Amino acid sequence: MKKLMFIMSIFYSIIFNISGKERIMAEFFDNQINIDVGFTGAKLLFFGVIEDPGDVVVAVTGPRKRLKARKKEKFMGVWINSNSKTFNDVPTYYYVAASKKLKNLDANEAFYVNQIGLKNIRFEGGEEQEDSEREVWKRGIVETMGKLGRYRSEVGKVYISKNGLFKAEFTFSSDIIEGEYIVDTLLLKSGNVIGAKRSFINVSKSGIGEKIYNFSSNHSLSYGIISVLFALTFGFLANEIIRRINA
C-alpha cells in the first residue's frame, strides 16, 4: 500500500509540475542498483507523462570506458591477433525502448544527433583510419558487445496510455558494470524532438562484495596471496574429509 501511494504521489507531482516548457517528465521508482553477494540482476520501473501526443523513445547508456579492440586474422590455420586499436568513451551498456518501431518514426536525423540506435553510437578512437576502415572496427566492437549481452539490438516497449502516462521496464543482468547510467527520454512528433528529459541510474557495490572489491583493487598482491592460500586450505580440507569418509 505504501509503495502504491508513493508511486501515485510521484505521478501527481509529475503532472502538477509539467508545463509548456517541459512537455515530458519521467522518473524511476528507484534508480539505485546495489551489487552485493548473491546479486542475480535487477529490474527497474520507469514511468512518466507527456503533455502533447507523440511517441516516446528511451535510451539507456552505460558508463563509458576506454577499450582496446583487437582484430584477428587466420594464419596457417590458426587465429591470431594481427592488429589493435584503442577507442575512448565506449558505452559499456546500451539499450533502447520505444512506443513504436524506430523505423516507423521517421526520425533518422534526430536519432543520429541523440545517438539512438546501435548504428548511431559514437565514440572516439581510430581517427587515423579511413572512414570505411574505422567503421569496420566500430562494427566489430558493437557486435562483440552484443554477444556479451551488453548491447541489445532488439528495441524494448514503451507503453503509453490514453491520458499521456507512459511506462517501461529495464532489466539488468548479474554482470552489470558499476557506475552511472544515463537515461535519455525523447518525445517525438512528426520525426522531430519536441521534448526531452535526462535521468540517471546509479549502480554500485555494497556490503561484503564492495569490501572485497576495494581490497583487491588497493592491495592486489595481498589479495592474490590470500586467494591462493584460501584455495590451498580449502583443497586440503576437502581432500582430508573425502579421505576420512573413504577410510
As a percent range, the share of strand residues is: 35-45%
Overall spatial form = globular
* Main sheet makeup: 6 strands, mixed
Q: Let me know the number of strands.
A: 12
In order across it, which strands form the biggest sheet?
Answer: 2-12-11-4-7-8
Alpha plus pi helix count: 5
| CATH-derived architecture of the largest domain | Sandwich
Class by SSE composition: alpha+beta
| Poorly predicted regions | 8-20
Instruction: Assign a percent range to the helix content.
Output: 25-40%
What would you say this structure looks like, in words?
With about 250 residues, this protein is an alpha+beta fold. It folds into two domains: about 1-205, Sandwich (Immunoglobulin-like); about 210-245. Helices cover about 30% and strands about 40% of the residues. It has a six-stranded mixed beta sheet. A four-stranded antiparallel beta sheet has the order 1-3-10-9, covered by helices on one side. A hairpin with a 2-residue loop joins strand 11 (about 180-190) and strand 12 (about 190-205). Helix 4 (about 205-220) crosses helix 5 (about 220-245). About 20% of the residues are buried. The model is unreliable at about 10-20 (pLDDT under 50).
